[in-house]
Predict the 3D structure of the following.
Amino acid sequence: MARPPCFSIDTMKRFLLCAMVAIAAVACKPGEDPNALWNPEFTITGAPTEPVEAYDVFTLTVSSLSDGVIYYEVDKPELVSIALRKRRVYSVATGAPEQDTPITITFTQDDAGGYDAASAVIKFTIKKKEAEEYPAGPSEDLDGVKVSFTESFDHITNPERGFYCPADIRKASQALTAEGVLAQRRLGRTLFYLGFIMSDFVDKDLPQEQLDLIQGCFDALREGGAKCILRFSYSDSEGETPWDADIDVVMRHVEQLKPLLQQNADVIFVMQAGFVGVWGEWYYTSHFNSNPKTDQDWAPRKNLVDALLEALPENRQIQLRTPKYKMKMYGMELKDTITAATAYQPTVLARLGGHNDCFGADANDRGTFESTVQRNYWKAETRYTIMGGETCEMSVYCLCSATLQNMKDYHWTYLNNTFHGGVISRWKETGCYNQIVDRLGYRLTLQDLFYTPNPSAGKEITITLRIGNRGFAAPMNPRNAYVVFKGSDGSITKAQLDADPRTWHPGWHVAHASLTMPVSKGTFYLELSDPMLTNRPEYSIALANEGVFDSETGLNKLFELK
């Protein structure tokens, strides 16, 4: 029987030597330095081939055989933001230039593992950001004498909307003052976040000194011409425990606070549920079950909300930190969202809104949303309830394009002006901050009006107003809406509009009022005053029209009959 072939030791050595020579022949071509580094084949894909829009976002992917460290440099960093999304995948977000602007991004990689250093250049153009085109107002004239108005594009200081000034208060030395409130009004801010941290009272009643402190802050708001977003908590640090008080203590505190809430509702824009957990944000908690699942688990939180709804006047809303809380505690589903028929009622459904304190932080705003259903729930609810909060972290989700769209979708009314500082700075640098300033909440503008021809004393005149709202939301709390006639004889006649300003959602609206004129000469005005502060003109809404609002009277001039 023949033996199988085999290699001798000498044969194996000759084989390995030949193989090494062959490899060397492939690796080193004639004339090349055998000590040279390899080409890493460094490339970038995903670069735009056409000019990109302002506020656009696209992805660049790096491919390389090397593991060398990768760097990038942008020639105009004020217009381009780059973030590493995962290994060698970069998200590129563009700003809003005033003219078409070429951009160059240079990627470089260090030499490593036998591979040479490398670089690649990406070039593209960002298109000029055109001014946003608002929906045009009605074009057809109505019956009657027409009066047209010029829209103002100045910043308008108006009540119950806009960026707020935060104030966390533990002791009397931190209390608001009327002078401080007035200083913020001069900066265009009419809202304060008023957060009372009551860590000294987790196991006892609120002393009279604490109640006096709270009342003093309400007085300062009233004197200075502002309102508050109100919250109570027992801790403002994860390291400060207990994070909240026992449920019985919390309920007793709500009982003690009720008279103050009732007496000062005029300067309370909205109240956040608070009390539970660090910062009163309902997450970390010592006494309210951190992971409620059953109705029994949810009962302590629901009992607190029910008590707050009863303590606060029924014309004021309470905000919950996420849509989940309202849906779970009150058995709500997407089909149960507020409608025009159920809005503005003294019901749990109509009085519970939401606040988002990690707006734009990531894909779900740091746990604010757990599903698309919850997002859609808030999109529907916030048409009729107050939405506001703050940002908390830089991300691609707080770029201008995403921010403006989300503020529109969720009907944002107010926002923290100081946190997160990086996000606020980004908005300023990339060109959308001023638009946010103007559009948070409502921005009402009068396009034109029509009135009955040949008005005279003793006859009825009907006035039809065409009003646009350029903001993200409607006015949210009850508000007077009158046409006022100041006669040449000093008489004052009022007629209520046939529309509730809370229904003036973004878009265009028509409202009417009729009155009998006592004299034939005089001036007509539109009054949009606060029903709880009627004699305070700084709490009246100013229209975004040129030469219309009188800050001394709080009235918007419509037209004069001479």
User: Anything to note?
Assistant: The chain has a mean pLDDT of 92. The first strand starts at residue 43 and ends at 45. The chain has three domains: 43-126, 159-439, 444-561. Residues 91 and 347 are 45 Å apart (CA to CA).
